[in-house]
Design brief:
Rossmann fold; UDP-galactose 4-epimerase, domain 1; binds NADP nicotinamide-adenine-dinucleotide phosphate; binds ligand G4F
């Protein structure tokens, strides 16, 4: 059988790694797109670089010409767009750049697909951040969007333009609406990785204190490896459609800290309120505090997704729970620190 050809924009990121791993297993020819950077950006995918069906090219979502050329030359069957300025907090500091990559970059890919002679299936990495400030306790594909950041707003443009190109030009274009998903390969400045990395270092004497922002927002955290499986399934259906991918479970940041501390066997005693809230160790040292600088101008207070459509149509459900996720992330931190 002829091998499928896939382009992955955002191949050097967390999901790029897990999707590459999955597509290699499925015998795809994969073309990953990396952007130019002053340091080597392929750390996560280095182990795939010697595989004969894995190729890496330079490209950038802010450079329309590069997108058109890559699609014209590679002639893929499927395009997975995972590329984004993916940090919500940072999007308040770089709103124009975030919009250029996360919104206009997506339109550039779709327009290149429209002008291609080949039928190409397209996946857009949408996000629960598009729900933003929502009254619905459990969000699904019908929940009203109300984004609270330049990141969420740009992603919402991408969501609508993907639907628009699907309907107007009959393109097999799909949106995933993925809730937070983590792994040992999560970027260092997302809250789960920051908590796990710093608390592990505190436990083994490499660090003294963890400083966080809002402890009371709630998130639905899944595992990236489970979520890329859903992403692939979305593009293998008979009809293009949009799907929420989530676990249906929700924890506050403080609960995530407590779960991590408990897995590390680190005793915490919480004292104080608001910006004065702190956690003390068993030797009464302050090991966690709160700083205003990690708060955002607007916050998304709670997110919890219903994956019932994905379960019914994609036959997908999450495999790993939050405790297993935390334990796997801690094990990787310990490995990095040479702790057996
Ligand atoms: P990530 O680790 O931050 O990876 C983002 C990828 O995009 C990286 O490969 C990055 O390259 C690339 N990129 C950034 N700007 C680019 C540009 N201008 N041109 C080309 N590539 C660019 O994010 P992730 O966690 O894997 O998430 C993958 C996608 O899913 C993102 O679109 C994110 O917004 C979305 N999403 C993520 C979650 C989640 O919880 N993880 C949930 C919902 C949606 P560098 O390596 O060079 O930085
Ligand atoms: O880990 P976070 O930065 O993730 P956030 O903002 O939920 O965004 C992630 O998930 C989205 C899906 O819903 C993706 F679309 C997006 O690309 C990204 O992957 O923050 C989670 C929560 C926020 O409420 C934040 O205010 O943790 C809170 N928080 C508290 N202290 C902190 C910190 N966040 C970060 N990054 N760093 C802190 O010190």
């Amino acid at each position: 059988m002829k091998k499928k050809i896939a382009i992955i924009f955002g191949v050097t990121g967390q999901d790029g790694y897990y999707l590459t791993k999955l597509l290699i297993k499925k015998n795809y020819i994969i073309h990953g797109i990396k952007r130019r950077s002053s340091s080597v950006p392929t750390k996560r995918i280095d182990k795939f670089l010697n595989q004969k069906n894995f190729h890496v090219h330079y490209g950038d979502l802010t450079d329309t010409a590069s997108i058109h050329n890559l699609i014209k030359i590679i002639k893929p069957d499927e395009i997975y767009n995972l590329a984004a300025q993916s940090h919500v907090g940072v999007s308040f500091y770089t709103p124009l750049y975030t919009a250029n990559v996360n919104a206009i970059g997506v339109l550039a890919i779709l327009d290149a697909i429209r002008n291609s002679e080949k039928d190409i299936r397209f996946y857009q990495a949408g996000t629960s951040e598009m729900f933003g400030k929502t009254k619905d306790k459990l969000q699904n594909e019908k929940t009203k969007f109300n984004p609270q950041s330049p990141y969420g707003t740009a992603k919402l443009f991408a969501h609508h333009i993907t639907q628009n190109y699907r309907d107007a030009y009959n393109i097999f274009a799909c949106n995933g609406i993925l809730f937070n998903h983590e792994s040992p390969l999560r970027g260092e400045n997302f809250v789960t990785k920051k908590i796990i990395s710093t608390l592990t270092k505190i436990k083994y004497g490499f660090e003294k204190k963890l400083t966080l922002g809002n402890l009371y927002s709630k998130r639905d955290w899944g595992h990236a490896e489970d979520y890329v499986d859903a992403i692939h399934k979305i593009l293998q259906q008979r009809k293009p459609d949009d799907y929420v991918i989530a676990t249906g479970k929700q924890y506050s940041i403080k609960q995530f800290v407590n779960l991590t501390a408990s897995s590390l066997n680190l005793k915490l005693r919480w004292i104080g309120k608001g910006l004065n809230e702190k956690a003390l160790s068993s030797s009464k040292k302050i090991i966690i505090d709160v700083n205003k600088k990690y708060f955002r101008p607007l916050e998304v207070d709670h997110l919890k997704g219903s994956y019932s459509k994905a379960k019914k149509i994609l036959r997908w459900k999450p495999k790993k729970n939050v405790k297993e996720l935390i334990d796997q992330m801690i094990a990787e931190e310990k490995k990095q620190l040479n702790i057996l």
